[in-house]
Every structure is written in structure tokens, then in C-alpha cells.
Write a structure and sequence with these properties.
Blueprint lengths: L5 H12 L17 E6 L4 E6 L9 H12 L7 E6 L12 H7 L3
Parallel strand pairs: 2-3
Antiparallel strand pairs: 1-2
């Protein structure tokens, strides 16, 4: 089996993160624009830098667990590290058209 490129791995990571739904909003974290960056080190550590719609959200631990579980069987990932960041602040401008339609935002 040939090794996959970083691009292919990141595409799989994004596909899997699209299955992680924000429990309060019912839309996935990718389309909500909550995922700011994905970095995969050569030794298999996947750092997902993301935010939440509001600072102090009580779902921080739950979302971190959902992200970790979603990426758990990606072959190249040995460990998932979810980092919550608050700069730049999240706004509805980060949402995709799909997310805005699903939430009735125009």
C-alpha cells in the first residue's frame, strides 16, 4: 500500500470532522466554521485548533471527546490534541451557506 499525501490525510480528517455535530445547533463543526486549523506532525500527533460559538460553552469537553473519537481510527494519527482558541473570535461569517440555511440565517 502506498503512503497517502498530507493532502489526502487532511481531506479524510475534514470528512470525519464533518460528522461531529454541535449538540446545541445540530450542525457539524466544519460547516459552522469552528475548525480553524488541522496540523499533523510526522510522529502522528494531530492538533485540531478550533473554537466554540461562545466562550465558556459547557460543551468543551464533550466536543473534544467527539473530535478525538471521530479521528481515532485514521491510520496515520497516533494521538489527537484538541486546542480551543478564542482569537479570532467566531462569527456567523465563518459558517458555510449550508450551515446558514440549516439554521435559518440569511
Amino acid at each position: 500500500m502506498s503512503e497517502r499525501t498530507n493532502e489526502q490525510i487532511k481531506e479524510e480528517i475534514l470528512d470525519r470532522l464533518e460528522m461531529v455535530t454541535d449538540p446545541e445547533l445540530g450542525v457539524d463543526i466544519v460547516n459552522l466554521g469552528l475548525v480553524y486549523a488541522i496540523d499533523l506532525t510526522e510522529d502522528g500527533i494531530c492538533v485540531v485548533s478550533m473554537t466554540l460559538t461562545t466562550m465558556g460553552c459547557p460543551l468543551t469537553d464533550l466536543l473534544a471527546d467527539l473530535v478525538t473519537n471521530a479521528l481515532g481510527d485514521v491510520e496515520e494519527i497516533k494521538k489527537v490534541d484538541v486546542k480551543f482558541i478564542w482569537e479570532p473570535a467566531w462569527t456567523t461569517d465563518r459558517m458555510t451557506s449550508y450551515a446558514k440555511m440549516a439554521l435559518g440565517i440569511h
